[in-house]
Amino acid sequence: MRSFEIAGRIIGDGQPTYIVAEVGINHNGDLNLAKRLIDAAVAAGVDAVKFQKRTPGLSVPADQRDQMRQTPWGYISYLDYRRRVEFDETAYRMIDRYCRERAVTWFASVWDKPSVDLLEAFDPVCYKIPSASLTDSDLLQHIRAKGRPVILSTGMSTMEQITAAVEVLGSDDLLITHATSTYPCEPTELNLKMIQTLRAAFPCPIGYSGHEVGLIPTVVSVALGASLVERHITLDRAMWGTDQAASVEPWGFDRLVKYIRVTEGALGDGIKRVYESEQVSLRKLRTVNP
After folding, report:
1. Beta strands at 3-6 and 9-12: parallel, antiparallel or unpaired
2. Mean pLDDT over the full length of the chain
């Protein structure tokens, strides 16, 4: 039985798809914008919202820290940009309070040990390991030592690297998400059949973290066996930010949730039966009966 639990909600085969709206860093460091994104996610009917937590001085590679880029805050280094969009503990306390008021679950991807330790104070329902950190065994061990459910993202990783990460984490209380870490990602590189490959390789639920433009591939992932789906949410794809173009606007998220729920109902159980609704057609159209 493939199952995983977040805040009392069972996720796995035979269960409704768990739908996550990733706010990520699309808030651009603005707490009010973060709240508006939470509101949009709740209105769409998602199960959870997700953020990202980094310690920029640790998570930004040394060779990229001094690279300059144009931002809404001026022409600044990549390290300074990362600091600008990072929420501190005070901001997360406000997010925690706001999500409780809106009755929506929240959690975060954690990129380094101090970020894990900071979020531990909020009694998180789970931790998400971003694709960039899949090969960081020290971080994986630190997260697993907290004793909480773990979601592992697998973008830009080989099967050998994924297997090694699962060996570190163990398969208990683990959910693996298939992903391609390109923002946005071309359909030809989504490789959705990897969901089935991962299902065959590991005894835990498999999900999908999509970075494509549009909704169809995410809905298809559910038909292929994804128990959890995650998409970035934005108020406007034209907004400034590295993830905005690969995100879904509120009206799109509303449709995505509806499409997924329709798909779940349409998949059925694979047992052939003659439905009562077919009886009129049966009597009207079939001329030879055994």
Report:
1. antiparallel
2. 96
Q: What is the pLDDT at residue 10?
A: 97
Residue 178 main-chain phi, psi, to 5 deg: -75, 140
Closest CA to 58 of 110, 12, 108: 110
**Helix, strand, coil % in the chain, rounded to nearest 5:** 40, 20, 35
pTM above 0.85, yes or no: yes
CA–CA dist 6, 16 (Å, integer): 13
pLDDT digits (tens, 9 = 90+) for 56-115: 888 888 999 999 988 888 999 989 988 998 999 999 999 999 999 999 999 999 999 999
Q: Are 55 and 79 in contact (CB under 8 A)?
A: no
Q: Cβ–Cβ contacts within 10 Å for residue 121, how many?
A: 11
Confirm if 95 and 106 have CB atoms less than 8 A apart: yes
Q: CA–CA separation, 10 vs 85, rounded Å? A: 33
9-54 pLDDT, tens digit per residue, is 999 999 999 999 999 999 999 999 999 999 999 999 999 999 999 9
Question: Using only C-alpha atoms, what is the Rg of the chain?
Answer: 21
**Across the strands, what pairs with 153?**
177
**Cβ pair 105, 7 in contact under 8 A:** yes
Q: Kindly list the distances between the CA atom of residue 90 and the CA atoms of 50, 93, 102, in Å, as whole numbers in the listed order.
A: 17, 5, 19
Tell me the domains of the chain and their CATH numbers. Answer: 3-285 (3.20.20.70)
Nearest to 84 by CA among 120, 54, 122, 129: 54
| Tokens matching residue 182 | 């390109």
Q: Which of 23, 52, 84, 57 minimizes the C-alpha distance to 231?
A: 23
Rounded-to-integer distance, Cα 141 and Cα 196, Å: 27
